[in-house]
Structure formats: C-alpha cells, structure tokens
TrEMBL record:
<protein>
    <submittedName>
        <fullName>Pol protein</fullName>
    </submittedName>
</protein>
<feature type="domain" description="Tf2-1-like SH3-like">
    <location>
        <begin position="7"/>
        <end position="68"/>
    </location>
</feature>
<dbReference type="InterPro" id="IPR056924">
    <property type="entry name" value="SH3_Tf2-1"/>
</dbReference>
<dbReference type="Pfam" id="PF24626">
    <property type="entry name" value="SH3_Tf2-1"/>
</dbReference>
Length: 124
C-alpha cells in the first residue's frame, strides 16, 4: 500500500512548545507525518508524533508541506558517539590554515581546523 506523507508546520500553533527550544531555534516543521484521510478539498487528518498528542489531528492544507521520499534522508546514527549530556567530543583531523593577525603590538594566531564528523566547508 502506498502511503502519503507530509511535513506539518508547527511554528504558528500557539501554546505548542514541546521541543524545548524558543524563538528562532524552534523547529518550523515536524514530520514526516502520515496522512490518514482527506476531508473535503482543504483539510487532512494526520497521524501525529507523540510530542503533539494534545493537538487536534485535522489540519488545513496551508499547514502542510509536501514530503518527497528520498533514500538520502536516512541518517546513520551508529557513526556518532553521543555522551550522556547529549554532546560529542570533537577530534582534530587536520589544520587547514594558519594566520597571524597583528593587534597593535601583539600577534594573535588564527587557526582553521577540520574536525572529525565535519566537512571541509564546516571547518572552524
């Protein structure tokens, strides 16, 4: 059986702060959620994640975004080693650049480092 999925816009739902983040860091969309039933031409009934269990399960189409099935959306969690405090230890792979910036009579060393589990574009 072919199932239709979509993302649900949660940024505009008042009183829903279930993601432990406020303001700009809060997620705009959650999902993908499975569409159970189309009601009329502008409403859909969804299967919601447990974090939205107190919200009604029927939404206007303006609150939904299309989900395109893509095998690259799968994340490999086994390669990440996460501590109990939900952080991971960064490990140096390579020093990409080194520069000495003069500030009055002091020299400040700036180093660009490539970390493990990061791409070259994300080097700091």
């Amino acid at each position: 059986m072919w199932e239709i999925r979509c993302f649900l816009k949660v940024a505009t739902i008042k009183g829903v702060l279930r993601f432990e983040k406020k303001g700009k860091l809060s997620p705009r969309f959650v999902g993908p959620c499975k569409i159970l039933k189309r009601i009329g031409s502008i409403a859909h009934r969804l299967i919601l994640p447990p974090s939205l269990s107190v919200v009604h399960d029927m939404f206007h189409v303006s609150m939904l975004r299309k989900y395109v099935v893509d095998p690259s959306h799968v994340v490999d969690y086994e390669s990440l080693e996460i501590d109990k405090n939900l952080s991971y230890e960064k490990e140096l792979v390579e020093i990409l650049a080194r520069e000495v910036k003069m500030l009055r009579n002091k020299g400040i060393v700036l180093v660009k480092v490539l970390w493990r589990n990061h791409q070259v574009e994300e080097a700091t």
